[in-house]
Amino acid sequence: MNIPLRASLIVCALVVCFFVMRRVRKSSLEVEDSVFWLLIAAALIVVAVFPQLAYWVSDLLGFDSPSNFIFLCGIIVLLVRTFAQDRKIAVLKRKLTALVQDEALREK
Predict the structure, then answer these.
(1) CA–CA distance from 50 to each of 44, 53, 88 (Å)?
(2) Is the pLDDT of residue 26 over 80?
């Protein structure tokens, strides 16, 4: 991994941290969501500082190249994140339906 790529990963991670902290201060981001984004930023920094770690893990798991391993990890993280968001949305929909029904009964 060359130096410009490593530097850009670190800069991107710092930008993510800055925006997450800014949104947390403005109370427009939940703590649970901010932890997720901070972990992503930390993972970017680890890969940028220790690129041999990606090579070692990809060799250990039998991937042909580290980029395949990184892409698979990204896809898995996005799938888990999507599932968690879907779960939150389902809970909110149930609460909204119950609230609307309760309000309709009160009006009648």
Answers:
(1) 10, 6, 35
(2) yes
